[in-house]
Amino acid sequence: MGGHARAEGIGSSLSIELPIQEAVTGALNAYGTTTHAFDPATIGLAEEFAAYAAVSLANAHLYGTAAGLAREMQEAMRSRAVIEHAKGTIMGERRCSADEAFALLAKPSQDTNRKLREVAEALARAASR
To answer: Residue 47: beta bridge partners?
Structure first.
């Protein structure tokens, strides 16, 4: 152990990698005040605990990923509704096809470097006045 750890009263440490897949990594770290503080039984118990901890962390990661994906899908559905409304407005005004209306909507989006949803929202606001 390093001199700093010994100065803080740490005589030994035990680090066990958490068996987690995907992008999550971690370790269970335990410290003892004496040298050789961890016997084989203690190490085995720590390894068993690390396996349970890994399951909890993996579940939390999966939940966070799924919740993020759900938020993204909700936003995509809201954006799609606004874009479809704007396309309908253009189709009604210009008597054109859905593809032509989309092209007319996409052009100012590209020209002004604005998101298509923002252009569609502005069109919907203007049309409602």
So the answer is: none
CA atoms of 118 and 124, how far apart (whole Å): 10
What tokens does 19 get?
Answer: 């068996």
Q: Supply the angle between the helices 98-112 and 116-128 in degrees, to the nearest 10.
A: 110
Q: CA 37, CA 69: separation in Å to the nearest integer?
A: 45
- The four Cα atoms 64, 68, 69, 73 give a dihedral, to 10 degrees, of 150
Give Dmax (Cα) for the chain. Answer: 84
Tokens of 96: 């054109």
What is the pLDDT at residue 24? 62
Average pLDDT, the chain: 89
Whether 79 has a pLDDT exceeding 70, the answer reads: yes
Q: Considering the domain delimited by 3-128, tell me its CATH architecture.
A: Orthogonal Bundle (1.10)
